[in-house]
């Protein structure tokens, strides 16, 4: 103990670590009426942390070669001790991350916390959302199953609708006219190096923005405050709030445990929800499975490409929606954050959400 104290004393003299700890734990006050939705960011950090860990363990046995990839995943699941657990945690975890990303985004939208001065927090978050989806898309190909092969064929095919450069773009994405070894190579590089690296850097920036701006006050009850419009930087403090550590972190830990419980329950009892039959057959470029559907979170995009008379219009509609969402804090500039006082926003929010769910269900059963 005294050794530990002496080590901290030594560091304290040089770096002032006690002050730093105090400032960021019990001295860092968060709003008194903070709610469970604010813990989803931490849940994401925990889930991504686990994804990195299981991903590294999978890398020990996975072989990114079209002849060997499927077999190497089979070996992981059937022969490597606890390999099935690591593989299923990674596959189910990716789906849970998309769920939590959506909930984090939806709560930020509903509470108007994307508004000034948090535009950069929102923008970095929105890019993180896209990086997350990119990780799912590239990871899906790696087991080189029938599902991987055909889902990637359909997804990359969509880029062909872009005018003029479409066909070249498809070939660029695949590295060849059709999905094959060059596609596996580039998706592997993206999935294990490029996208995780970009994600880590951007998470750092996102957390910096959150900490620098200060946590927003939930826009409910008498504590509600409008978005601030001042022209000078002002860290939002919460005098009379609750300490971030240990009080709020204890609440966050409970949410993280809940998320892990869901993850473990699905991994143990129902992994087939996310690992369907076509995922258990090796890729065969000559046999197209009867019902090839993308993952649930891409169904809305898949179906919009089918609804419109031309794929180009569908692609343009998707691009317009994503651009609108990315730029939302610059478009919706009102100071009001209370949902009850933003009837137009809340109406569009609910209808938009129902529409996306409806289109996804339609895509699933069409
Ligand atoms: C890798 C993914 C992400 C991680 C690890 C992450 C992490 C966090 C954390 C820890 C917080 C602080 C507490 C909280 O409100 O939860 C936060 C806040 C925030 N996040 Fe994220 N986030 C991610 C993705 C996103 C996405 C996709 C969006 C929206 C498009 C977003 C927008 C925001 C905003 C606007 C805040 C400020 C909330 C406030 O002060 O009220 N984040 N994020």
From TrEMBL:
It is a multi-pass membrane protein. One of its GO terms (biological process) is respiratory electron transport chain. Its main location: membrane. Residues 234-366 form the Cytochrome b/b6 C-terminal region profile domain. It comes from the Bacteria. The chain crosses the membrane at residues 36-63, 89-110, 122-142, 187-210, 253-275, 312-331, 343-363. GO terms for molecular function: electron transfer activity; metal ion binding; oxidoreductase activity. It is found in: Membrane. Keywords: Electron transport, Heme, Iron, Membrane, Metal-binding, Respiratory chain, Transmembrane, Transmembrane helix, Transport. Residues 7-219 form the Cytochrome b/b6 N-terminal region profile domain. SUPFAM superfamilies: a domain/subunit of cytochrome bc1 complex (Ubiquinol-cytochrome c reductase) (SSF81648), Transmembrane di-heme cytochromes (SSF81342). GO terms for cellular component: membrane. PANTHER family: CYTOCHROME B. This is Cytochrome B6. It comes from Geothermobacter hydrogeniphilus. The lineage of its organism: Bacteria, Pseudomonadati, Thermodesulfobacteriota, Desulfuromonadia, Desulfuromonadales.
């Amino acid at each position: 103990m005294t050794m530990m104290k002496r080590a901290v004393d030594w560091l304290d003299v040089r770096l002032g670590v006690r002050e730093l700890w105090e400032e960021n734990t019990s001295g860092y006050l968060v709003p008194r009426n903070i709610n469970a939705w604010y813990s989803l960011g931490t849940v994401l950090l925990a889930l991504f942390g686990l994804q990195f860990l299981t991903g590294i363990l999978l890398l020990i046995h996975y072989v990114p070669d079209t002849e060997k990839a499927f077999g190497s995943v089979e070996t992981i699941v059937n022969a490597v001790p606890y390999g099935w657990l690591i593989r299923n945690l990674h596959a189910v975890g990716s789906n849970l991350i998309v769920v939590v990303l959506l909930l984090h985004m939806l709560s930020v939208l509903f509470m108007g916390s994307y508004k000034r001065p948090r535009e950069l927090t929102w923008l970095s978050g929105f890019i993180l959302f896209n990086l997350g989806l990119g990780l799912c898309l590239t990871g899906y190909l790696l087991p080189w199953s029938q599902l991987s092969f055909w889902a990637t064929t359909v997804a990359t095919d969509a880029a062909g609708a872009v005018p003029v450069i479409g066909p070249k773009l498809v070939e660029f994405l695949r590295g060849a006219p059709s999905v094959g070894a060059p596609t596996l190579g580039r998706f592997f590089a993206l999935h294990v190096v490029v996208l995780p690296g970009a994600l880590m850097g951007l998470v750092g920036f996102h957390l910096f923005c959150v900490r620098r701006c200060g946590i927003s006050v939930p826009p409910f009850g008498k504590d509600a405050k409008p978005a601030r419009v001042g022209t000078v930087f002002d860290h939002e403090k919460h005098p009379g709030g609750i300490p971030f550590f240990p009080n709020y972190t204890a609440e966050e830990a409970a949410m993280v445990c809940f998320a892990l419980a869901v993850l473990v329950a699905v991994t143990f009892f129902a992994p087939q929800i996310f690992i369907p039959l076509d995922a258990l057959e090796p890729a065969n470029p000559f046999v197209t499975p009867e019902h090839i559907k993308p993952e649930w979170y891409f169904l809305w995009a898949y179906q919009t490409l089918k609804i419109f008379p031309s794929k180009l219009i569908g692609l343009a509609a998707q691009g317009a929606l994503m651009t609108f969402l990315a730029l939302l804090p610059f478009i919706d500039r009102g100071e009001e954050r209370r949902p009850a006082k933003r009837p137009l926003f809340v109406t569009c929010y609910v209808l938009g959400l129902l529409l996306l769910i409806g289109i996804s269900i339609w895509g699933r059963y069409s």
